[in-house]
Amino acid sequence: MKTLLITGANRGVGLALTKVYLKAGWQVLATCRVPSQADELQSLTLRYRSLTIFALDVTDYTQVNQLASQLNGQVVDVLLNNAAIYGPKGYKFGECDETAWRAVFETNVIAPIKLAEAFITHIEASELKTIAAISSRVGSQTENTKGGGYLYRSSKAALNSSIKSLSNDLLPQGIKTVSLHPGWVKTTMGGPNALIDAQESAEGLKQVIDNLQDAQSGGFYSYQGEEIAW
Ligand code: NDP
């Protein structure tokens, strides 16, 4: 049985990914900030003995390291960094709030790399040896024709850059890394006018991860498998 470790599993794309992996017969180590309030995730434990839920605020690096120690000896085939924040909406040039910007970077850029560091031995011991990060198309430099979105855009661009560095550092050890755009998804972050539901996004993302080749490591792909320009 393959094992997924995922962050932000209580709602949105993270919850949908959890369901898709459980349905496919995987063991899922699902993390979220407040498990006692994660009703839908908790209800899945009644159907799936392969699901275990852990408390994890991804920006609490003590908690990250404690979880890695608690799971010592547990292999992790896929580490899926899904948790993220958008930050306050509507910031334009001249209005950027540096405190909010730092918080967005903490969650969206630093935390995924700290998780990779903490769980590297668990991943290295697995068969699939994969680190995936849910990024966003708005992090593409090439596709940025509108400007704005300083906090979130820059965080996803930095995440992509960090995933590329991880690939250069870790592919020699057989560990593949990838940045993934989930589509515009109907979640709290994506809003009600988004184009696809979370299940469609999650099914596509899993397929891309399942078929990931060494040559694609460090790349940036959509949930439909299309390569996105940096
Ligand atoms: P949601 O806002 O619906 O969910 C965000 C998730 O991240 C929640 O589970 C939230 O937990 C969790 N989270 C935030 N901060 C932390 C933290 N410090 N520690 C642990 N968990 C945290 O977003 P989506 O499901 O839409 O987004 C999932 C991913 O997809 C994100 O990386 C996002 O950037 C990306 N994305 C989404 C798009 C969309 O259209 N929806 C488009 C492009 C990219 P809590 O409930 O505790 O707040």
From TrEMBL:
It comes from the Bacteria. One of its GO terms (molecular function) is oxidoreductase activity, acting on the CH-OH group of donors, NAD or NADP as acceptor. Coiled coil: none annotated. This is Short-chain dehydrogenase. It comes from Pseudoalteromonas aurantia. The lineage of its organism: Bacteria, Pseudomonadati, Pseudomonadota, Gammaproteobacteria, Alteromonadales.
